Structures are given as structure tokens and as C-alpha cells.
Recover the amino acids of this structure.
């Protein structure tokens, strides 16, 4: 029987609302927008449903304050939680957001037990780990979105410096979604040409530092919250890889069970994403600096996760 795909957006704030729009525009599936704020998801859904005829996209979008409406979703994208304000680190969100993720995870397990879960809520790696633990889902069905976003930032800055199309830059950012994330220069190219052959090392250092701080740069400019257009776009890339079984290679926060000599945490690594969720974690050779940086990032994530237990 042909069944329309159902995507539950848990959190209908800045990212959730943008996700509903992008999913509709790209005809990925039907959307249920859920939030605890009375009426807000319903208002956003109604508004988006009015654009469907204008732009010719046939999809159903509904808003709700009843979590049971996520029932039998194929994908759950979780943005529920508070966002950073200027002066806050992602880690400052852990106490509040952990409680929210705990309750949301229990509901996902109850109402959407076969769904693929993409966590966006910060601090990302710790929240993805908590979601994995709370839902009891297999490790390949719970993933965190950050690497695609951080890689997009790296690509954008490099394309600007090289004065080339963003489509000519292939980049990689691994590690935790924090100030110690790891832009992997040794695998970053402009149409196959290693960026180290096109830009000075000092220029690349500055770009990579800007990537690490890009989230904070947006927060300090917006003053009222954090980035949402690019995070939503990054999650859309992951939803499409899963629902369309693209077997796409991309960086995402995944459960490590010995890969990269790291055990028992979520961390941004290269994966293959397809209909089975995280089909495979790709273990790639890193330079000694990159290996060390990944280890440092992993220890920071592990430290934050230890505060959850
Ligand atoms: O790359 C990444 N992973 C990050 C993630 C990129 C940018 C933003 N990052 C984080 O995503 C950010 O730090 C937040 O933790 C989340 C969501 O960011 P967003 O900008 O969408 O925050 P909003 O606009 O505050 O939306 C959060 C919504 C808001 O409407 C709340 O009412 C709702 O979450 N909320 C809940 N929804 C459902 N269930 C519960 N319990 C709940 N609590 C709050």
C-alpha cells in the first residue's frame, strides 16, 4: 500500500518552522509540527499550508500541542529546548534541555517506535546520546545533526576566500559540535585540489577558527537566538538521505562503539546515511594533529555526558 511519508517536528520554533517550510517546498513528506506553546505550531502550519497552492507543493502540514499526533512518524526531528543567547555557551543549555529531551524521548519511544530520530537540540552530542539512551532505539536509528551544518559553514568560508562556487568546495568537519570541533583540512578540496595548495596555512587557520565560532557569531548578531536557516537545511539533507535511501556520505553525531578508539559517546564522524539510518561509520586516516583534536573533542563530549548520568 502506498503510504505518504510522515515527518514529526518536535519543537516548532525557529528551526522547526523553517524545517516545515523546507520539507514542504522539497516535497519530502507530510509534516506534523508539535510544540508546547499553545497555538503556535497550529499557526505556523496554517500559514505554511497557505503557501502550498501558491508554490505548487502538495503536502499536508498540521500543527499540534498533543504529542500523540507524532504517532507512527517515519522521522522525528527534535529541536525542542532553549537556544543560546549572547554570552551563553552550548553547554549552558544542558540542564534545561536534558529534561526536555528525556521527556520527548519517552514519547517518541511510545508513539513513534519505528522512527529515525534526528536530534538538533544543543548541546548536540550529549542530547543525541541522551535520546539514544532514553528511547532505547538501536544506535543506527538515532543521530545528531551538526556536522553537516559545520561543514556547510567551512565550505562557505572557503568558497569566499577562494572566490569559487560553493559547489566546488568539498569539506569535512568532525568531532563535537563545540568550540573544539575539527575541520579536517586534509580531506578538504576545491574540485579535488587540496585547499592547502590553494590557500596559505595562516589563512586556513583563520577560516577554521571562524568555523568553530560561526554559531556564536550568528548569536551575537541576532541577539535573540541562534542560527536556524542553515541548521534546518542541514537536517533536510539528512532526512532526504534516510527517506530516499541515498546512502549519502556525510558527517553526523553518531554512537561510537570503538571506532576511532572512542567508546560509548556520540560524536561527529563520517557516516553512510540510508534507509537503515546510520548504515556505517567510516573510519578514515587522520593527520596526527587531527587525531589529537578529535580526541580532545571526544573527551569534552564525554565529560558533558557524564554530567547527565
Ligand atoms: O547544529 C545544531 N545542532 C544547532 C542546534 C544549531 C542551531 C541551534 N541549535 C539548537 O537547536 C538550539 O541551541 C536549541 O537547543 C535548538 C532549537 O533551536 P531553535 O532556534 O529552533 O530554538 P527555539 O526557536 O527556541 O525553538 C525551540 C522550541 C520552542 O518553540 C519551545 O517552545 C519548544 O522548543 N519546546 C518544546 N517543544 C516540545 N516539547 C517540549 N518539551 C518543549 N520545550 C520547549
Amino acid at each position: 500500500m502506498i503510504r505518504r511519508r510522515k515527518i514529526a517536528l518536535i519543537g516548532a520554533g525557529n528551526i522547526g518552522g523553517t524545517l516545515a517550510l523546507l520539507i514542504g517546498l522539497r516535497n519530502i513528506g507530510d509534516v506534523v509540527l508539535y510544540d508546547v506553546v499553545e497555538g503556535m505550531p497550529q499557526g505556523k502550519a496554517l500559514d505554511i499550508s497557505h503557501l502550498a497552492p501558491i508554490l505548487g507543493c502538495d503536502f499536508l502540514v498540521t500543527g499540534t500541542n498533543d504529542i500523540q499526533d507524532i504517532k507512527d512518524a517515519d522521522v522525528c526531528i527534535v529541536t525542542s529546548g532553549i537556544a543560546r543567547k549572547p554570552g551563553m555557551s552550548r553547554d549552558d543549555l544542558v540542564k534545561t534541555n536534558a529534561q526536555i529531551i528525556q521527556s520527548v524521548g519517552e514519547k517518541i519511544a511510545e508513539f513513534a517506535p519505528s522512527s529515525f530520530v534526528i536530534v538538533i537540540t544543543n548541546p548536540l552530542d550529549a542530547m543525541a546520546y541522551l535520546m539514544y539512551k532514553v528511547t532505547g532505539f538501536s544506535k543506527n536509528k538515532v543521530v545528531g545533526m551538526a556536522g553537516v551544518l559545520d561543514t556547510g559553514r567551512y565550505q562557505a568560508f572557503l568558497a569566499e576566500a577562494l572566490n569559487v562556487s560553493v559547489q566546488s568546495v568539498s569539506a569535512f568537519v568532525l568531532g563535537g559540535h563545540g568550540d573544539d570541533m575539527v575541520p579536517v583540512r586534509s580531506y578538504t578540496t576545491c574540485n579535488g585540489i587540496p585547499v592547502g595548495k590553494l590557500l596559505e596555512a595562516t589563512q586556513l587557520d583563520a577560516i577554521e577558527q571562524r568555523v568553530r565560532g560561526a554559531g556564536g557569531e550568528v548569536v551575537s548578531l541576532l541577539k535573540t537566538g541562534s542560527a536556524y536557516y542553515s541548521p534546518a537545511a542541514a537536517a533536510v539533507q539528512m532526512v532526504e538521505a534516510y527517506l530516499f535511501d541515498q546512502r549519502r556520505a556525510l558527517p553526523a553525531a553518531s554512537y561510537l562503539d570503538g571506532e576511532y578508539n572512542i567508546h560509548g559517546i556520540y560524536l561527529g564522524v563520517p557516516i553512510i546515511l540510508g534507509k537503515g539510518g546510520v548504515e556505517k561509520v567510516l573510519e578514515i586516516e587522520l593527520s596526527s594533529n587531527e587525531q589529537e583534536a578529535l580526541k580532545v573533542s571526544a573527551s569534552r563530549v564525554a565529560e558533558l555526558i557524564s554530567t547527565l548520568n
About this structure: The chain is about 40% helix and 20% strand.
